[in-house]
Amino acid sequence: MSEKEIKSLEEIFEARIARDEKIEPKDWMPEKYRKTHIRQISQHAHSEIVGMLPEGNWITRAPSLRRKAALLAKVQDEAGHGLYLYAACETLGVSRDELFEQLHSGKAKYSSIFNYPTITWADMGAIGWLVDGAAIINQVPLCNTSFGPYARAMVRVCKEESFHQRQGFEIMLKLCNGTPEQKEMAQDALNRWWWPSLMMLGPTDAESIHTEQSMKWKLKRKTNDELRQQFIDQTVPQADVLGLTIPDPDLKWNEETGHYDFGEIDWDEFWQVVKGHGPCNKKRMKDRVSAWENGAWVRDAAMAYAEKQENKKVAKAS
Amino acid sequence: MSKNWPLWEIFVRSKNGLEHRHFGSLHAADAEMALANARDVYTRRSEGVSIWVVESKHITASNPADNGELFEPAQDKVYRHPTFYDLPDEVKHM
């Protein structure tokens, strides 16, 4: 194809997206669209998969059967969400193995929030309430994104995600209505998860290199700063219900803007964690890679069994 | 060198009376495992009463580049629609 032909195809393509038409896997698309989507969807899938690890830590130690069943269901949902997203990503012509290879080699990123440790039961509450809360804010606009398989996966993810946040909030509420030690535990979890949750919504608009292109492709419908403000505005009143204090002395309601003003985010910490120097980066990758490697014999055995059965069928037929 | 599990397309009937609808895809070693995985991945909240699995390689799809010749001819055949035909107002329910 000549450069001119590609240029006109690109114009038709951009016009389709501007008209809110969906792009499906077999449609022509600019190489940059394909690559950006592979990067974003796989990062999203990796986050779901790595996100199971900090919570998996507490399944065997949940304080009651009710909590254990809920946490188990939540972690299972995350495995499912990872699968929906990997499948959507694979429609762009990349294999599951390549995606895993990118995660395991450190080439692909996942949400940096999962590099923080889960040291008390209250962390299960804070993750559900704050981390899933921030994730929902990020994900709801994606139900309308331009790439069909991604949008469809997100519709399913969002439908399932709301229970995650509610179960987290319920854990916090129970602790806050419990003994002083339990309430202290909830406050401590909020103190540790608040800032990382704000960072989770991504760098400030001024620093975000992908925002403009992503807005055009409807991979993003609101900027990181808009999403962050929305998250803060909706979460502060919830902290009030719990009777907890948000660990930000500069946080205060601004009558004029109708939003909360908040303090400076420590972006150095964010970039440190993104670059692999967070408290648990190494452990997460080690656990993930060893789960994959230790499962290799099971995958091979299942494949060998399937082939044997298939051969038996063929032998019988002939 | 181990072989990767093939890809399967999953179709779910959400309740009797409705058709099976494409829900998504997943990897599995064989059809039986594809059914088991589909149950876990796509029907965790009573979304279905029946599942079909088809290995993706068995699906032949039309090419969007051919959409013009495939689908445009239908656009000028308005006589396939009931509104093309003129009837007197007295005729009701037809």
Task: Please give a structural write-up.
The complex is a heterodimer of chains A (318) and B (94). With 318 residues, chain A is mostly helical. Chain A is built from 13 helices and 2 strands; from the N terminus they run ααααααααααββααα. The relative contact order of chain B is 0.18. Chain B has one domain: Ubiquitin-like (UB roll), CATH 3.10.20.520. Chain B is elongated. The chains are: A mainly alpha (318), B alpha+beta (94). The A-B interface holds A 24, 26-28, 73, 76-77, 80, 83-84, 87, 90, 95-97, 152-153, 156, 160, 296, 299-300, 302-303, 305-306, 309-310 and B 2-5, 7, 24-27, 29-30, 33, 40-41, 44-45, 61, 63-65.
Biggest β-sheet of chain B: count, sense, barrel?
3 strands, antiparallel
Determine the number of helices of chain B (DSSP H or I, runs of at least 4 residues).
Answer: 2
CATH domain topology of chain B: Ubiquitin-like (UB roll)
pLDDT averaged residue by residue of chain A: 95
Q: CA-to-CA gap between the ends of chain B?
A: 67 Å
Strand count of chain B:
3
Largest sheet report of chain A: 2 strands, antiparallel
Q: What class would the helix/strand composition of chain B place it in?
A: alpha+beta
List the helices and strands and how they pair.
The complex is a heterodimer of chains A (318) and B (94).
Chain A: H1 3-18, H2 31-50, H3 52-59, H4 65-90, H5 96-104, H6 122-139, H7 148-176, H8 180-199, H9 211-216, H10 224-242, E1 252-254, E2 259-261, H11 267-277, H12 281-294, H13 296-317
Antiparallel strand pairs in A: 1-2
Helix pairs in contact in A: 2-4, 3-4, 4-7, 6-7, 6-8, 6-10
Chain B: E1 7-13, E2 20-27, H1 31-42, E3 50-55, H2 67-71
Antiparallel strand pairs in B: 1-2, 1-3
